[in-house]
Amino acid sequence: MITVDCKDILPLKSPLAVYTSDQVGAVPALKIREFVLDSVSDEEVDAARVIKAIKDFLDSLSIAKHFAVIQNRNLISIVAIDDYKVEPQPAQPTDQFFSCIHCGYVTQFEAVYNNHMKIHYL
Ligand SMILES: [Zn+2]
Predict the structure, then answer these.
(1) Is the N end or the C end of the chain the one with fewer CB atoms within 10 Å?
(2) Whole-prediction pTM value?
(3) What CA–CA distance (Å, rounded) separates 100 from 5?
């Protein structure tokens, strides 16, 4: 089980949890300032893959340079290294995209969207 501390990146906690859990094949549980990734199999969640997924996510938003991703055993912290403030992602619903009304997560795939919505009703 891996805990990801999101206190410096709170507006992105939900979409980051969804993206990361998808990438590493784990189940996310959202907490107030962090999320926890639990393995769906007997294998432990691979921290290196979680870090890679977090960096890919930050890269995709072009904000990777503002954050350090620091691992301490089973705790991974995303730490702001400058004064950059994360703005909530604006939801931009279009015909071919499904946009989450809770956190602005956007996907092209209805199945992914339906799966995503479950994290808000845990
Ligand atoms: Zn959402």
Answers:
(1) C
(2) 0.71
(3) 22
